[in-house]
Specification:
Blueprint (H helix, E strand, L loop, with lengths): L1 H27 L11 H12 L10 H11 L3 H21 L3 H17 L6 H13 L1 H4 L5 H22 L2 H15 L1
Helix pairs in contact: 1-4, 1-6, 2-3, 2-4, 4-5, 5-6
Length: about 180
Amino acid sequence: MDSLKRVLLAVVRVYVGAQWLQAAWGKLTNPAWVGDHAGTAITGFFQHSLQLASGEHPAVQWWYAWFIQHVALPSAGFFSYLVPTGEALVGIGLTLGAFTGFSALVGAFMNLNFMLAGATSTNPILFTLEIVLVATRKLAGAYGLDAWLQPRLLPLQQWLRARLQTLWPLSQTRAAAASTDQGAR
């Protein structure tokens, strides 16, 4: 049964990755995104999002409109390169099955931001599939580079965990919290 789940999740992972690669390619080959007129396309997207923030039932919430107006719009040139680069990296990660959980999490974050900006399209579907991929990251990456990467990264993870433990001893903190909870009962 696990092998069937792995195959189905691999198909979902590759499908979502291909969607990201297709979106990235369309932007990376468009001079309104990257190149001579970089920032033009995303500025139009941001301005449209600001229009969706008004009315009786706005599609864009006031706090996200504030972010677009005061952070994203003044940095349109930066976001014009950041969005397609992020899309390409998520697409590569998911298609190859490399860092599946992290790639899907970053993809979900981008889809969430697109939805908060008022763009529906396939974003809710991709967001849902990415949450499934994050939740099942070990199975979803089993038929991908993760199967090769994870065993090799385990010593690094253990080393980092040990170094962080010396900086912030979590087990002692948890033990102290547990003894405090038991003493209160």
